[in-house]
Specification:
The complex is a heterodimer of chains A (200) and B (317).
Chain A (H helix, E strand, L loop, with lengths): L6 E5 L9 H9 L10 E5 L8 E5 L8 H5 L5 E3 L5 E3 L9 H5 L9 E2 L4 E2 L18 H7 L11 H5 L5 E5 H15 L10 H4 L3
Antiparallel strand pairs in A: 1-8, 2-3, 4-5, 6-7
Chain B lengths: L1 H14 L7 H6 L15 H8 L5 H33 L11 E3 L3 H25 L1 H4 L2 H29 L7 H8 L19 H26 L4 H7 L8 H33 L5 H4 L2 E3 H7 L1 H15 L1
Antiparallel strand pairs in B: 1-2
The chains are: A alpha+beta (200), B mainly alpha (317).
């Protein structure tokens, strides 16, 4: 582990079996409203032999997070370990972060009596938000803060095939390299989506 | 198991000689992604990751980070400064409001106009509030501004069709408009002279067409951003257009168009308010009582005035 951890997600599409466990675990752990999924499992080329694969997508906590750049009220902040979080009290729910996001991560639960679009909700890498750590308010607005408790984010913790890996980039890269080496066959040069999310 | 079935189904389709378009199996295979009909949560979003640089995503980020806020600032401040200087240097036009009055705007048109006006008074300032949301600190203030922005749109949308139908013909361009444009409507001189213009001058026509056609585009792009998950491809299908861009791309394009067009509309809206309230003293009367004074009509809408007089002479004969 380096002195400065840089947290990253990696979903191994050779291992993902589309069980949707990560998505359901996330919904349950953070008590998300119906219709909102911070994490989604998506299968491509289904039924096409040799081309089909599944992967799990959520906020990738990008290096130069475009959501943070476009937010008109500057409600985003990036932690020192690279986790991208936002302040729901500042967010106006305009949707610009969704347009900027390559991964379709921002979600917009309905809010209030008129069913208007509420403030944005997204994966926090189980690191809560700007409220007091592990306070009731933080839990209500952002869900669990497992990182503060020293736990692995929910999705990766329960992944049955350990396709979904999260942690410091050097550790994740090590896991990735070992897996590629042990498979002994050609794979993508970088994990899916990494070139878009992590520029350096 | 599901994969196995899909695989068998896939190969069966191939055997049947049917071409599997990328879309068909994808639509079936978004797993837990789409709960309900949400075009944003489809398997297409995975392909969007790799196509991000080719789409509007990066352009939107560029415009939003580098262009929109400064441009809105230059336009907002620029237009106000120009008019302040105009007011101080050239000054407002004054016309006699004594004497004969001409009934120009019917009660119905005045009501329609003021519905649109209330709409704009809600839309334009709240739009600026969202653009400069960071300076205002965001939160409930700017969030409520966003809600008011939508409510104002409903008012504007109500007025759009009747206003278009009622004023469509007098707003068509005429030769007067070219002459009007050459002398900038006479607003650059203090001299009181007859300005070539029909019922509406070229400036009013510009505002009308921008507000009507541009307004329609603003409503469409704004509504898409408001409702977010209304499937655009399906809507286009209804009007006979086949398109297969992803929903997110339409949203990104909407945001870009909405911002640029918003600048133009905001600029002309401020102009319209300045002209009606400050630049021509008493001009507001015609939209309140419906009457325009003879002096004002004769000078600012000379062609229309001549036409009215001619009609009068004809009917009295």
């Amino acid at each position: 582990m380096s002195e400065y951890a840089r947290m990253k997600f990696y979903c191994d599409d050779e291992r993902c079996i589309e069980c949707n466990g990560c998505s359901v675990a996330c919904d349950e752990a953070h008590e998300l409203p119906v219709g909102i999924s911070r994490r989604k499992v998506i299968t491509l080329n289904e039924g096409i032999f040799g081309k089909e694969f599944s992967t799990s997508v959520a906020c990738m906590h990008c290096t130069d997070a475009p959501c943070e750049q476009v937010c008109p009220v500057d409600c985003f902040y990036i932690r020192e370990d690279g986790i991208v979080l936002h302040d729901k009290n500042t967010c106006i729910g305009c949707g610009y972060c969704l347009y900027a996001c390559p991964f379709g991560a921002p979600q917009f639960p309905k809010d209030g009596a008129f069913g208007t679009r509420g403030v944005m909700d997204k994966c926090t890498m189980c690191a809560g938000g700007p409220e007091e750590t592990n306070s009731a308010k933080e839990r209500e607005l952002y869900g669990q803060n497992r990182i503060a408790e020293g736990k692995v984010p929910m999705c990766a913790a329960m992944c049955s095939t350990k396709a979904l890996v999260v942690g410091d980039e050097q550790e994740v890269s090590k896991v990735y390299r070992e897996r590629v080496a042990s498979r002994g066959k050609g794979v993508q040069s970088a994990p899916y989506g990494w070139s878009t999310a992590y520029k350096n | 198991m599901k994969k196995l079935i899909a695989y068998l189904l896939g190969t069966a389709l191939v055997r049947a000689g049917e071409q599997i378009s990328n879309k068909v199996p994808l639509a079936m295979s978004d797993g837990g992604a789409s709960r309900g009909e949400n075009p944003l949560a489809s398997s297409q979003m995975l392909q969007n990751i790799l196509q991000y640089k080719d789409g509007f995503g990066e352009q939107f980020v560029h415009f939003q980070t580098e262009w929109f806020q400064p441009l809105f600032m230059y336009i907002g401040i620029g237009v106000l400064v120009v008019f302040l200087l105009h007011y101080l240097i050239i000054g407002p036009k004054r016309f006699s409001h004594e004497g004969r009055k001409f009934y120009i705007f019917s009660l119905f048109m005045r009501i329609i106009h003021w519905i649109a006006a209330i709409g704009f008074v809600l839309i334009v300032p709240t739009g600026f509030m969202m653009v400069f949301g960071d300076a205002l600190g965001g939160g409930a203030l700017v969030r409520n501004a966003r809600y008011l922005h939508s409510i104002g749109t409903v008012l504007f949308a109500i007025s759009l069709v009747p206003m278009f139908l009622a004023w469509f013909i007098p707003m068509l361009p005429t030769l007067d408009d070219i002459k009007w444009l050459f002398i900038a409507g006479g607003y650059l001189s203090k001299k009181k002279r007859e300005i070539p213009a029909g019922k509406f001058n070229a400036g009013q026509k510009m505002w009308f067409w921008l507000a009507m056609l541009g307004g329609l585009v603003m409503i469409a792009t704004g509504a898409l951003m408001y409702f977010q998950t209304v499937d655009v491809n399906q809507l286009l299908q209804y009007v006979g257009i086949t398109a297969d861009k992803d929903q997110i791309e339409y949203l990104r394009l909407s945001a870009i168009v909405h911002n640029f067009l918003g600048m133009a509309i905001a600029a002309l809206f401020i102009t319209h308010v300045y002209m009606a309230v400050f630049a021509i003293k008493g001009a507001l009367d015609s939209m309140i009582s419906g009457n325009k004074s003879e002096d004002e009509l004769k000078h600012l809408h000379s062609s229309y005035y001549k036409k009215l007089i001619k009609q009068e002479e004809k009917s009295s004969q």
